[in-house]
Amino acid sequence: MKPAVYFLLTLLIAASSCSKDDPEAGLPAATHTGANTAGCRINGQVFVASGYGSGLGKVEGMGGGFAYDSAYYLRLNGKFGDREGSLHLFLNSVPDYKNQLLVGPYLLNKSTPILPAASPYQCLSYAAFFPKDNASEVYYTDTQHQGVVNLTYVDISNVMVKRIAAGSFEFTAVSNLDPTKTIKVTEGRFDRKQP
Questions:
Q1: Pairing of strands 71-80, 147-155
Q2: Where in the sequence is the signal peptide annotated (predicted)?
Q3: 87, burial (CB in 10 Å: exposed 0-12, middle 13-18, buried 19+)
């Protein structure tokens, strides 16, 4: 076999094995351009904000953004494995002198009421997951089941043109129906431009 052919075959085999072993396979790239992409792993399974349902029952993949004066709220709808659900991130913050949310980590480590059961002004920063197959169950962060959202990019310099926030997240959340049931969310990332 000629050395050039051997070299090309080796590259092809290496490239195909890398795509299978890539730890981020299936997740959207971590960007900060307003790409309106988001995803994570829930209990190791890929969850991408791609929406679910069809026709009039179609639920969009992503919603939310800057809201309630000094908060950031993000709703990601999608599937992991054969389950559908909605993942919510709520950051309650004190804005800086430009009335912007500050870049940096937001700890999800307090017990707090969550939307829609409470007013946004009563809520501290939290993450929650609402499985579609059980309307009465919700997984949420609290003092014992914690996490973090790290805002890596925020641009609301021109509210009429750009309202972009991007970052990463991870957390453990507990079921409101059974305190022995938890979910672990890892490798989370989002890049949201509000309409």
A1: unpaired
A2: 1-20
A3: buried
